[in-house]
Amino acid sequence: MSEKITHSGIVDSIGGGRVMVRITQTSACASCKVAGHCNASESKEKIIDVGRHGCRGELKVGDVVMVKVSRKVAAQALLLGFGVPFVILVAVLFAVVLATSDETTGALSAIGALIPYYIALFLVRDKIRGKMSFEVEKVPA
Questions:
Q1: Are strands 135-138 and 55-56 parallel, antiparallel or unpaired?
Q2: Hey, which end of the chain has fewer CB within 10 Å, N or C?
Q3: Cβ pair 8, 16 in contact under 8 A
Q4: What pLDDT sits at residue 38?
Q5: Residue 23: strand pairing partners
Q6: How far is CA 140 from CA 13, 58, 65, 82, in A?
Q7: CA dist 15 to 8, 31, 56, 130, Å?
């Protein structure tokens, strides 16, 4: 199994020490012959903010590039984005419901407990960005 996750994309913009790359994320069945007639297939365009330090070679807007990230970095991102919030949500929900026997209060408290987590995540985003970096490589024409 490869140690890198790769996506092809197009450089959308360059500026402020950042490179923005547009990738098309498709579901596993989007390439199926009947995907146009099925609701399960979908594709989304996403913009990835990549630091200049991860770029190999000179890039310009419109260049076709390959965006690479290690599986370890992808796992850390998933943990911070989904794993930790899920644990906080469930822990607060059960604690409040056990303490008050009120499910509405438990649900609202659980959702409210995520606010400080996401604020803290926002405040340390530059530190996280420094540890979780992408590599961008220009695809030869």
A1: parallel
A2: N
A3: no
A4: 61
A5: 9, 46
A6: 19, 12, 9, 36
A7: 20, 34, 16, 18
Helix ranges (DSSP H) in 7-133: 71-78, 84-100, 103-123, 125-131
Amino acid (1-letter code) at residue 72: K
d(CA 18, CA 37): 39
The residues pairing with 13 across neighbouring beta strands, listed in sequence order, are 20
Mean pLDDT value across the chain = 82
Low-confidence ranges of the chain (pLDDT < 50): none
Q: Are 112 and 38 in contact (CB under 8 A)?
A: no
Report whether 44 contacts 92 (CB < 8 A).
no
Residues 135, 68: contact at Cβ < 8 Å? yes
DSSP secondary-structure letter at 36? G
